[in-house]
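Q: A reviewer asked whether we had any structural model of the full assembly, not just the individual parts. We don't, so I'm hoping you can provide one. Inputs are below.
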Amino acid sequence: MTAYIIRRLLFLVFVLFGVSILIFGLLSTFSPERRAAAYVTTPQQAENIPLIIKEYGLDKPIYVQYGKWIQQVAQGNLGWSLVAARPVAKAFWNYFPTTLELNLFASPLVVIVGIWLGTMSGVYRDSFFDHSTRIAAIVGWSLPTFLFALILLMIFYGYLDLFSPGILSSELALWVANNPDQFVRYTGMYSIDGLLNGRPDITLNALNHLVLPVLTQVIVVVALLMRVMRSGMIEEMSKDYVITAKAKGADFKTIYQKHAKRNALIPVITVAGQLVALSMEGSIAVEVVFNRQGMGWWLAESATQLDMPVLMSVCMFVGLVFVISNLIIDIMYAYVDPRIRLH
Amino acid sequence: MAVLLTAQDLTTNFYTYEGVVRALDKFTLSIDHGCTFGLVGESGCGKSVTVRSMLRVIQSPGVIEGGRVLFSEQAGTDPIDLLELSEEEMEGIRGDSISMIFQEPNAALNPVLTIGYQVAESFLFHRTAQMSTRICEKIDGGVSFGLLTPLYRAMLSIAAKSPKSRFLKACSRIPLLRRWDTPVKDEAMRRAVDIIGKLGIANPEEIVTRYPHNLSGGMKQRIVIAIALACHPTLLIADEATSNLDVTVQAQILQLLNDLKKESISSILLITHDLGVVAETCEKVGVMYAGTLCETGKVEEVFSRPLHPYTQALLTSVPKFHQEGELQSIEGSVPNLVYPPSGCRFHPRCPKAMEQCSIEKPELKELRKGHFVACHYAEAQVGGLV
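A: Here is a predicted structure for the entire assembly that you could use as a starting point for your response.
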């Protein structure tokens, strides 16, 4: 098992290499002028385009540019982010915790709620419960995320004034910014840092700001997981071993909890793993509507401004997340399904 | 001989998209105490549906529409109607008084649970009270079960009285308290090892930790039998238990069933399409066609002097060792049970069909002593009980 994990992690290097070549290849289809234009912020600078091209080596052959870039990356220098106006590595630790914080609360909810709803509607197929959850799931899945987020915001912020957008209330955010010695940002996540610094009020405030984005994320993502679990459950409940269990004298709950559920979970693990990995990139709609500047927001901004170093780094990060999440999925597979052995 | 189980006018329909499949049409059958009964018929004639209806394990979209299944576990006691019991009472009967062996050992075992657990479940469902009492006695006798012994003693004395009490179920959700049944589970596992060993599987201690995919087909079938036999059922239903096994393993399993019947089980209902198996192992036989029973009686009687034209055709279509020339087969094919033939369901294929056959459904009548036939033609020929 350990050997398997080590081998898979070594494999990671090749995946990242492949991803970087792909992205570099794609970006090289832009002319040097186009890419240089990305560094231009004022009309005066437009005259300096040839200079910029020279400075950044944009007219050199692609492999030279790639070699230069990889050299920098190997030294831990991911480049300068225009959007964030700071080095990419630093900017990453500014944006990533925001996304991670959201997912830390949303992902377990998605998995637990999705599996539970899917199990129940699969077991009590064609019941009222089944129909209502399925309709809710279709609505949640097909409504655009931004529209759904806006509706929630309108109701809970606009009318009820319960939960507000942003990450932290402005007074607290100002206090934190002015007192860096009293409030150490260990994780970058206010809900956790608040506890670590002995400020539960900051934690509560951060949690209050998390409610709506988490709710949006859960409702949008849970639908797919629920449907996979439901169909898996229906399929497993019609298998012969269920009749064996029934003929043994098993009660209904034992049949679906102990016998069918574990079998139905096997495809769900893949979907859940992919969904969680995907949400680590951050949901652009959720982050923009709720004004939480995380990975999704950063990536979207960088893409529109052709912020090359950021695009490269984020793509590498996504590759990393997917390789690791696939590894975790494989390990969980082997844990749930005894027929799978990892070599 | 006293009657163990009687199915009367059992009717089961499947509500499919193509229409209502009338799988069982007023099916009637009775099995005596201590008897091995063979139920034969073509594929798709409703053998499996029959036994699944009796145990009420029909899966959707199948619905039992009517009839009675009378079961008297002790000879001479008043029979109970299994179709009228609550689901909970039925759970107490399944696997304890009546149990079942399934057709496909590969599909019948849960791929993600250990063999040991799957066998032990039988004991956990039906013998928790008994095992708890034993363990309480052991604890009182000074046997220690580790640090938690007092907890076990307290909880198991409750389990000994009512193993399905709400209190115990609630406790199973609380950490630490949920471990009250550890000694019971261990005991169930020990019993599982025992019974697997008895069924002629080498190294049962190791087998219980394995999963179904680690075992061969014959071994899996033995495990399925172990599950069925765990609680010494009064009636064992073997649904094509040997059909998917090769001949040598088939012989071993049949021998095993025969030996077990002498020791522990009272009766066996053997479902098969293999007339040879019936001739060799059964005392009585029932011949099924398209959801109805057409002929039943002692094996020698039915096989040597069949009265129903279907049984006659079935017997002539058995390949014989010294036979030359073409194999006999029955003309036509099994009817579509969404639109079953009127009257006798066999009449479109019957060489002896009369006018009456397409109009009126023949009833099962005792035409010779202990030999029941549902056929207008046979009735006219023999003319009632001689």
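A: Points you may want to mention in the reply: Chain A has a mean pLDDT of 84. The first strand of chain A starts at residue 80 and ends at 81.
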